[in-house]
């Protein structure tokens, strides 16, 4: 049920001169639309319970004529004028929380002069220029006399929220959980095929004008809402790895380095997906589609760090492996940095873009509109063509409807507000199908929770198995007082291969973003353990004795981004860990994801040797990551696996078409399905796999809603061609 809105009151009363509304009807409308969030309801209940006293008081101040208003007595709209003003002030106190329940078209948290709608609760949103148009007297207006006679009261919470017109009793056809590379692809392709799609995103919506300038803006960079940090970047600490990931509308694309590389063909020959499809034949077409949609180009902006990497490759004898990265950054052949162009990618259907200015700020969120984030391509087009995105919305339950344990009759999805401490605003939606796309960690965490609470008990016991980190290690070099600004360029502009399996990229943060400097220290060789820690102490003390002033300077964060080049080392070697849903020893009150298995190597001798040669070129210091030395815990931004593609639930969670074993019309489309170490940044592969998965879903008019996982391999082509 959808109500027009005016200043916090559900109907434009002055425009309905002929409408006569009983107070009990208005009370019922509010009860349906606000539910438990109802200070408005409580106010109306108060008026109804003590109406005699209320009417006398209101009459005393001249608001209503003398008399009483019973549940059946009618009042004309003009008599509600001042009463409406009073109710409007009550509603204003809770508008920020009740907004999605009261208004026809929620603001989707789009920034307004640097503020989201939660910050504008004290304003009169009904007067803002972006308000929804009011419905006039017609059958489409639920408060008009023409529609009062045949109204059937709906009780579904999602319909009461005024979203996703129902069809066959469902709020949406598909609900996509997460808006990262898999989720945005799914939303766009499903909308193209005629489905009604909702995207539930736990993070905030970001725009160039509200992104942080540097990493010192912790509250706008880090995502830890329970601590009041509502940014887009997060670090999760496990025994086997420190995992960096993004959380925003657009997923990790807001904070990723925009590096989009395809892996070698060997990845399809290892892992649980081997032989399940003709991957080498099928995937090139989907990689091409993903590359076109993400606007991939070869990097033309080489900064000082890229030139240093090339020189270091020459010294190491691997100069022939040096390459410029493939990136999703707008770098027009003509034009000046920062110049704005009409949509260059989608024939005018997309947003205007600006040329890259080489600030190095890709991983802090591009504030100039040059990086091809998902909210500027896949997700932008999905929203433009009808998808509904719900930001700051955390999914807490997904369960089959009507007692059908396999989900063949649809699903119920329950959500809460992810950034709220107390007023969580619980909501309920129904849909035909669900796509889990909450990132590898997010999808594992949610599915573990749903399996334990018996909402989805048939999820494979292989959940959490075969988790991979690309076998990464972070090293680097810092040169105090270097003559050039090493932060200039794009985040990852070039790379080399120091052997068949080991790949190194030059990475940078923008000037002023120095907080990562707290995690770096003097490079230390040796196997993990007490001896390596002792060797590190020896190296630090020795450096302090030899070059005290320079050593102190490299160990403090000030100026780190301008003087430091991160060397991201990745290996395409098999190695995996396991994620379990357990109570850790230090907090027995709640279950969390915990890692188990063999340690991921943090010491790669060839990479350390390369870092030393790199530092010698500049006269600087080779550096390591402090957690890798002290705790033997590597850092990675590329956590993949956990819900891998396999031939049966005994070996994985989804089949070759990303359908979840044990359920109908349920899919997983994110990095958790990847079944092998890629050895390169995984974003392009996740996108291409999602394109392939969506190609098997037929157009809406052909859908039978009986799509279950198939055990065993399938060498079949897709059902429909994808288009941009």
Give the helix/strand layout.
Layout: E1 21-22, H1 23-34, H2 39-49, H3 51-60, E2 74-75, H4 81-102, H5 145-148, H6 157-160, E3 172-177, H7 181-192, E4 197-200, H8 218-221, E5 223-224, E6 229-230, E7 233-237, E8 242-246, H9 279-294, E9 297-298, H10 304-316, E10 323-324, E11 326-327, E12 340-341, E13 353-354, H11 378-384, E14 388-390, E15 393-400, E16 411-417, E17 427-436, H12 439-452, E18 465-468, E19 473-478, E20 492-497, E21 502-507, E22 520-522, H13 530-546, H14 548-555, H15 560-563, E23 564-571, E24 578-582, E25 592-596, H16 605-618, E26 621-625, H17 626-630, E27 635-636, E28 640-642, E29 666-668, H18 683-695
Parallel strand pairs: 3-4, 3-17, 4-14, 8-27, 17-29
Antiparallel strand pairs: 1-2, 5-6, 7-8, 9-11, 10-20, 12-13, 15-16, 16-17, 18-28, 19-23, 19-26, 20-21, 21-23, 22-26, 24-25
Helix pairs in contact: 1-2, 7-11, 7-18, 9-18, 10-16, 13-14
Provide a descriptive summary of the structure in words:
- Strand 3, helix 7 and strand 4 form a beta-alpha-beta unit.
- The two termini are 33 Å apart.
- The strands form nine sheets. Strands 3, 4, 14, 15, 16, 17 and 29 form a seven-stranded mixed beta sheet that branches. The protein has a seven-stranded antiparallel beta sheet with strand order 10-20-21-23-19-26-22, with helices on both faces.
- The relative contact order is 0.13.
- With 724 residues, it is α+β, with helices and mostly antiparallel strands.
- Helix 10 packs across helix 16 (605-618).
- The chain has a domain at 13-153.
- The protein is globular, with a radius of gyration of 28 Å.
């Amino acid at each position: 049920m959808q109500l027009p809105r005016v200043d916090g009151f559900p109907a434009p009363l002055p425009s309905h001169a002929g409408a006569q509304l009983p107070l009990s009807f208005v009370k019922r409308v509010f009860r349906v639309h606000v539910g438990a969030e109802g200070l408005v309801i409580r106010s109306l209940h108060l008026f109804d319970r003590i109406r005699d006293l209320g009417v006398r008081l209101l009459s005393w101040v001249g608001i209503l004529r003398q008399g009483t208003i019973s549940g059946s007595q009618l009042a004309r709209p003009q008599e509600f004028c001042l009463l409406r003003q009073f109710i409007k002030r009550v509603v204003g106190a809770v508008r920020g929380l009740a907004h999605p329940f009261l208004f026809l078209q929620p603001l989707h948290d789009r920034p307004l002069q640097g503020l989201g709608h939660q910050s504008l609760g004290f304003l009169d949103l009904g007067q803002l220029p972006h308000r929804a148009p009011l419905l006039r007297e017609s059958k489409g207006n639920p408060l008009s006399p023409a529609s009062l006679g045949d109204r059937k009261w709906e009780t579904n919470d999602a319909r009461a929220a005024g979203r996703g017109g129902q069809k066959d009793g469902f709020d949406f056809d598909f609900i996509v959980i997460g808006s990262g590379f898999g989720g945005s692809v799914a939303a766009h392709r499903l909308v193209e095929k005629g489905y009604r799609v909702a995207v539930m995103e736990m993070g905030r919506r970001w725009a160039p004008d509200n992104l942080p300038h540097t990493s010192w803006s912790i509250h706008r960079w880090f995502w830890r809402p329970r601590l009041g940090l509502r940014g887009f970047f997060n670090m999760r600490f496990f025994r086997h790895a420190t995992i960096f990931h993004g959380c925003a509308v657009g997923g990790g694309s807001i904070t990723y380095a925009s590096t989009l590389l395809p892996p070698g063909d060997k990845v399809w020959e290892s892992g649980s997906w081997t032989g399940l499809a003709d991957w080498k034949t099928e995937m090139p077409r989907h990689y091409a589609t993903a590359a076109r949609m993400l606007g991939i180009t070869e990097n033309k902006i080489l900064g000082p760090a890229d030139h240093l990497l090339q020189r270091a490759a020459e010294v190491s004898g691997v100069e022939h492996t040096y390459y410029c990265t493939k990136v999703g950054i707008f770098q027009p052949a003509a034009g000046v940095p920062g110049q704005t162009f009409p949509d260059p990618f989608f024939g005018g259907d997309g947003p205007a873009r600006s040329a890259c200015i080489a600030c190095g700020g890709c991983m802090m969120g591009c504030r100039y509109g040059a990086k091809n984030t998902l909210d500027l391509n896949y997700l932008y087009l999905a929203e433009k063509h009808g998808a509904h995105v719900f930001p700051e919305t955390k999914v807490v339950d997904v369960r089959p409807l009507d007692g059908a344990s396999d989900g063949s009759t649809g699903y119920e999805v329950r959500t809460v507000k992810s950034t709220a401490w107390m007023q969580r605003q619980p909501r309920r939606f129904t849909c035909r199908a669900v796509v889990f796309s909450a990132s590898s960690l997010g999808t594992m965490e949610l599915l573990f929770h749903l399996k334990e609470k018996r909402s989805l008990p048939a999820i494979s016991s292989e959940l959490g198995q075969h988790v991979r980190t690309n076998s990464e290690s972070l090293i680097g070099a810092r040169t105090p007082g270097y003559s050039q600004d090493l932060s200039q360029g794009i985040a990852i502009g070039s790379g080399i291969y120091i052997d068949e399996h080991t790949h190194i990229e030059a990475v940078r943060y923008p000037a002023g973003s120095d907080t990562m400097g707290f995690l770096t220290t003097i490079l230390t060789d040796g196997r993990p353990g007490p001896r390596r820690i002792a060797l590190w102490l020896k190296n630090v003390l020795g450096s302090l004795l030899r070059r005290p002033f320079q050593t102190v300077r490299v160990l403090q964060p000030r100026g780190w981004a301008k003087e430091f080049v991160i060397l991201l080392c990745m290996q395409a070697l098999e190695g995996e860990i396991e994620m379990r849903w357990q109570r850790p020893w230090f907090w027995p009150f709640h279950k969390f994801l915990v890692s188990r298995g063999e340690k991921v190597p943090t010491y790669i001798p060839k990479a350390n040797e390369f870092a030393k040669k790199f530092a010698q070129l500049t006269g600087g210091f080779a550096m390591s990551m402090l957690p890798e030395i002290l705790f033997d815990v590597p850092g990675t931004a590329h956590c993949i696996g956990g819900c891998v593609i396999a031939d049966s639930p005994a070996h994985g969670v989804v089949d070759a078409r990303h359908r979840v074993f044990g359920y109908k019309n349920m899919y997983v489309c994110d990095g958790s399905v990847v079944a092998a170490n890629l050895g390169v940044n995984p974003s392009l592969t996740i996108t291409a796999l999602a394109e392939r998965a969506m190609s098997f879903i037929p157009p809406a008019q052909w859908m039978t809603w009986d799509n279950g996982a198939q055990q065993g391999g399938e060498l079949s082509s897709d059902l429909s061609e994808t288009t941009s």
